[in-house]
Each structure stands twice: as C-alpha cells, then as structure tokens.
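We read letters as residues; the fold follows as tokens. Both lines appear below.
***
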Amino acid sequence: MPEMQQWTNVISNFTENREEIAYTFRDTDQNIYSRLTMSSSGYLQRFKWISNGEDWNQHWYAPKDRCDMYKKCGPYGICDTNSSPECNCIKGFQPRNLQEWSLRDGSKGCVRKTRLSCSEDAFFWLKNMKLPDTTTAIVDRRLGVKECREKCLNDCNCTAFANADIRGSGCVIWTGDLVDIRSYPNG
C-alpha cells in the first residue's frame, strides 16, 4: 500500500519461507502502542494509543475506496479510482458482459478479444499496479525477471509474471485468471 511508505517510526518485515508468509511491523518509538484489528464490517484498522487523551486513535484503515474491494473488476479487469468508470480491461481484453459493464458493474470482468495463440501473443507491461491475487501463482526466488519472462513465455498456461520482490529479485508466475488488479497513480 503506497501510503505505508509515509509512516514514520515503523519497521516493516516481510517473511516468506516454507512455513509461513507474513507481514509484520513494529514502532521504533517505545512510547507508542498500536494495535491492528478487523472490524465486524470488514475494515482492517490500525489504532495508536494516545496517552494524554487516554484513548485509541485510528491511524490507518482499509479498504479506503471501492478499488480496495476484492475482485471489484473481475478477471482481467483493472480498477482505477482516477478513471470513470473505475473498471477497465487489460489491453487485448473486453468486458465479459457489456450490459452490466455499461451499468458500471465490472464484477464479471473481461475476456480475450481474440483466441490465445501461444506462439504469437506477447505480454503487455503494467506499471504502478497492485499484483493480482496469488491463488494461482508460483514463486521461484532463484530467478531474476529475465529468466522469469522466458519461463513464462515457454508455458502456454502462464497468464502473467512479475518480480517476487519490489527490489527486483525473485519470480512470480500466474497460471490462472488474473483477479483483483488495481492501478495506483503513484507509489
């Protein structure tokens, strides 16, 4: 989440190994207490303790907008809060249901405009995006982005690839529908 880059006094840690995949954070200021909760209405909220007011202050929450809703634009759809309508199809795809799409319901997503041709089709680069749901993804930490691209090009079931780490290392390959993609204007 781009806004997390602005948090001060916070050390973030991402752990990935055979036993777990986890994100943790901690405040470096020992005088700050915080808690992360999930409300009954589905909001993930981070609170900080305000000692002089003796109360918890909401510091952060998600979802922030409609694009934070899971699968808002369906398979092969991109949600972008800076466009109208919010749902758009990846290049080479079109709305699955034009009538629902015109009513601004993108939940059914998009379908290919033409039949897939493994020997002729190419990948379209998407930048400033939240990666799709990783349910159908495979991670290989040993590969760089060039090897990742080659591996994906040689597998007709591959629908997308990306770096596993924002710093440019590792490989994530998707072999199913791409869902829950979101555009970020910056960050």
